[in-house]
Design brief:
Chains A, B, C, D: It holds the Pfam family Beta_elim_lyase. Chains A, B, C, D: Residues 16-246 form the Aromatic amino acid beta-eliminating lyase/threonine aldolase domain. Chains A, B, C, D: This is Amino acid lyase. Chains A, B, C, D: InterPro entries: ArAA_b-elim_lyase/Thr_aldolase (IPR001597), PyrdxlP-dep_Trfase (IPR015424), PyrdxlP-dep_Trfase_major (IPR015421), PyrdxlP-dep_Trfase_small (IPR015422). The structure is a homotetramer of 351-residue chains. Chain A has helices at residues 14-22, 35-48, 61-71, 86-89, 94-97, 114-126, 153-166, 177-181, 190-196, 226-232, 241-250, 255-276, 296-303, 331-342; strands spanning 2-3, 54-58, 77-82, 102-105, 135-142, 170-173, 199-203, 213-217, 289-295, 306-307, 309-315, 318-324. By secondary structure, chain A is of the alpha/beta class. The first copy, chain A, folds into 2 domains: 2-6 and 257-341, Aspartate Aminotransferase, domain 1 (Alpha-Beta Complex); 14-255, Type I PLP-dependent aspartate aminotransferase-like (Major domain) (Aspartate Aminotransferase, domain 2, 3-Layer(aba) Sandwich), CATH 3.40.640. Chains A and C meet through β1, α1, α3 and α10 of A and β1, α1, α3 and α10 of C.
Chain lengths: 351, 351, 351, 351
């Protein structure tokens, strides 16, 4: 069945598979201590314009959020995130599992407001009971956010500025970073992230790799003994070279951004079809996640022909769903979806 | 200096001290496995009207909240509490330290609404992503709340009813329970709590004991090997008999409720003085915590003569403070406070 | 450089890569909820002769150990393992990271003795202080062990019998299970494991897969909400179908055991060469790990031509190293190693 | 019934009780931020001869061990202790509950050997797999040990020297410190501990206080935000002044050492009686814990008249028990015990 359920439905970009296959019987030392990982790191440092960046490859996003937040905070500290942030809602308590509280700020279309962050920190420090509270120890934002929205460079600079004034590291979840960097109208580059964040990651799982996230610690601030910390979390991949091979390939000839752009282009085609069809879109962004609110019967009808993601109940008779494109989305798939969206409800659908 | 800073400023009711002194050179086995603890438990079971209740004595409130919530939930579960709940704000992450997330609901004068709780659970179960989220595993309410407010019996029954329909245990934080049970107009009794909650505690630290909280597991639901769990948390008191002696005394001749009532009576006197003086009280309750919003200069003036608790900044020029009475508050202390509250600001105060 | 450093130096068996490539643009639902995972699980159930077995695919071994031990024990329990067990020594504290203590028994060539296990449990229960101690909550053994040794069926039955009499689940780490099942002289089958263990895993990472471990819960004892528990550990692979594809292929036409056998055959060739060369082997087994004690100069010489694994310092002038073969080891590689082992030290080597 | 079961069977030294009673209706600020705590700290700094020492009062020993070890180690580190150490055996996994592994060294009458510690650290650093292992992050010794034995000054200096050369803090558990400092023949003083340890505690619970341990961080190395860390562990006593009052009194006029000495003197009387009676003492020390191996029938007989502590089964027909004296042990109690020890078994006892 046709699927726009998420951006991790397919395997990997063919160049990634070819690269793995070509190296298949080469022998690599374990745990990422190999030359291809070094090569991939060098390419990423180059792309970030940060020769001091320290890079570590992990397998998945929740894993990365858990480990980075744990390793970069003291036990009396927590992570400040917006209430809709992945770490606050959709990680099954992975952050709390390592003893860290999520300190939730209001979300604005999925984004954090720098002034609200600053006010939160100021109020915390002014609170006479602060020693009985969880200290803000790291700031977490997603780019793109869980709603596909993007920070402008000015917005990120404002957040980064608050963090630096207050001595709190800024962590950017880039699970879908490729789609953010290549969106229409964005002014945020990889170099900007490397300049403004203290740690961020470049998502591979959702952008062309089989799996893998490249964590970039800027300004030489990788926690001491980070490999041991990763092992302690059960997250150290024995065949680390598999991650190295993939990121080495993704950062050769701009593969990462080129394949990411496709998702946004295809999403724009779907957005156009939705707009033309008079569909209700509660929030519009320029990346690969499209949110549309459907009458329940319409949702049921579509679900028989295409897999979409349940997002939330809008009201008793409407459901908001997510349509996700990816590096792998083809013109033909979009054509089929657009055709389905044009179909009207039939009596049969209402059964 | 005169203090209305909190309800744990003094030692213990004289009868408690006398009881400890009388037993001082008796020899007790360790860790609460003594006869006086058994006697205290029997008295509490009687007062609760629940002959099956299992009781464990702990030292402090945050400790109790941490251990009960940890022990009564699975690792994939969290605790539902209002956003102003002690476990969510003022325990320095003690709940998260044992790997549990606080799932925050709106607070209404510090209280949880049963319908909102039910709606939260319903929405959770209806969410297609629920397996990636923290399951509601226990419900936490405080009685009195952190704002000194009280649930009515009907409100507690409604919450208990939601919990039982949904198979989620109800935990009542009774750190100030004595003040709640003896408040003007309350219709909630200890028997009601034992009937409606799955676990609750009777606060001693703030109600006449040197320290100690009596955790009551109703319906035979004390977690297996609870003593070992307490030890693992570093919370098992070697001289458990000290807790037994205190609760045995508190539950002899109604000492617990008799001394608790004093706090509410004295608080009413202060509330009357505040009302007469035209002070702004953002929230009025019938227990031992009084909240009053003062111009900052007035707050500074009073702070030179009496210790009050900072609660929160009301606005740039006003501060909300808490005045707390207790079992130990004397007429004379209240007279002095009332006199201070009548004083007008002098030029000297504004320096 | 030639490597016998470990059994995870290469990618995957070509059939595995081909299977992934063939399915690359198919669209799968996330997190292992796909048909290919179901197919793989059915094949594994068949191979185990246990139609009730519940199976979950994870990425790596330490991750699996951490999650299984955490999920199958209460917080007052720990894991009983031999002192040389992977969970006790080489997981960087991953077990303790989730709050579980490793209760170490003596190791006999890496193996646990059933009588010692029984005596440990008996002594624990007879200890008047047991409520202040960590309860034995799960028993962990590796098959093959960290020393490549194997339990006989009678030995496993004896351990399983102790576990069942005492109500403690038995967990078998099968990270190298393929090499154990196909070793000369073993009488332990997959069906035996499914019968004797309460949970075990079939290692893919070291036996032909890119990565992946198939956790088999026998007797319907997968912990409730296990997927959420895995997510909470940051260990839920978005593209779960990648694990399904690999295990579906490994359990088609006995691929798993056929490729595993190669490692043992090649190891036997190396063992023969070592014996012929008069090398000191502190421990001999029938699986893919060979331990040999070398004069330090000889170790240094060999290390310039082949990658071996440091195991431990034998004494001031000798080092014990590990030679590991795998599904990927070729005749040619073994020929080269055997030739190197025949070389004598030259003056140059002693520089 | 007469009890020599432990050193926490009675309440507190009368001067402690009197001090608490005298201050009972004074009003103190919460959480140890009061003047009497400051006074107690000043007295302890004086007694330690370390004007820079930072002191924090906690309630119990396991709690203290858990918090200090957690707060003074990174997550990739563990605690090195002898296998018989309290943290390794009798804390129900409290250390692991906060994610730290106990790295066990051999015990020599309960003591750690400096050379073995050094060799352990050296072997760890020389191990090529060390990044996959738990790093030694703090060294824990008890003085007196769990067997009542004492380090000599030279032994402590040797351990401290290893720790400083290797950059690992030394933590001394002084739950029974008073009995160690006042033992016959010891050359270790409080000043020595303050000089040699990085953190240690002065036990109050077992030496005259109702409860309480004074944690002394020497060399200004109290972890940042330690109060918040304590709160996060659920261990911050609301009425911190109760601990301050007790330690202020214990460190007035040498009360602490004077009352401690009594325990050792009384223990010597019992040891003399045991020796005279031909009892088997598997280990002899100069402090307040006496270990004696009894025929089981004799143990059963004595248990009907005096409470002793089960220690371990010596063999099928013998049990090793512990006799503990304390600050509270009276001449009369010892006389009664000595008389009991002189009694011979009667036929009745063998029933």
């Amino acid at each position: 069945m046709l699927s726009f359920e998420n951006d991790y439905s397919e395997g990997a970009h063919p160049r990634i598979l070819a690269r793995i296959a070509a190296a298949n019987m080469d022998q690599y030392p374990g745990y990422g201590s190999d030359e291809v990982c070094e090569s991939a790191k060098a390419r990423i440092r180059g792309a970030c314009g940060d020769e001091d960046a320290e890079i570590f490859f992990l397998v998945g996003g929740t894993q990365t959020n858990q480990i980075v937040i744990d390793a970069m905070t003291a036990e009396y500290e927590g992570v400040v995130a917006v209430e809709t942030g992945h770490v606050n809602v959709h990680e099954a308590g992975a952050i709390e599992a390592t003893g860290r509280k999520v300190l939730a700020l209001p979300a604005h279309d999925g984004k954090m407001d720098a002034d609200e962050l600053d006010a939160y920190c100021a109020a915390f420090l002014a609170d006479a009971n602060r020693d009985h509270m969880v200290w803000p120890g790291i700031v977490y934002v997603s780019h793109p956010t869980e709603y596909g929205t993007l920070y402008t460079k000015a917005e990120l600079e404002a957040i980064s500025d608050v963090c630096r004034r207050r001595g709190i590291p800024l962590f950017v979840d880039g699970a879908r970073l490729g789609y953010g960097l290549t969106a229409r109208g964005t002014d945020v580059t990889l170099e900007d992230l490397a300049r403004l964040a203290d740690v961020f990651y470049i998502g591979g799982t959702k952008v062309g790799a089989l799996m893998g996230e490249a964590v970039v610690f800027t300004h030489r601030n990788m926690p001491k003994h980070f490999l041991t910390i990763v092992k302690r979390h059960g997250a150290l991949l024995a065949k680390g070279f598999l991650l190295g091979l993939q990121f080495d390939e993704l950062f050769t000839d701009d593969l990462y951004t080129r394949i990411a752009r496709n998702a946004n282009v295809q999403a724009d085609r779907i957005r156009a079809a939705l707009a033309a069809g008079g569909y209700e879109m509660p929030l519009v962004n320029a990346t690969n996640q499209i949110f549309v609110t459907l009458p329940n019967a319409r949702y049921a009808q579509l679900s028989r022909r295409v897999r979409l993601s349940f997002w939330e109940r809008a009201d008793a008779s409407h459901t908001t769903v997510r349509i996700a494109t990816s590096w792998a989305t083809t013109d033909e798939h979009v054509d089929r979806l657009v055709a389905l969206l044009r179909d009207t409800l039939t009596a049969d659908d209402l059964l």
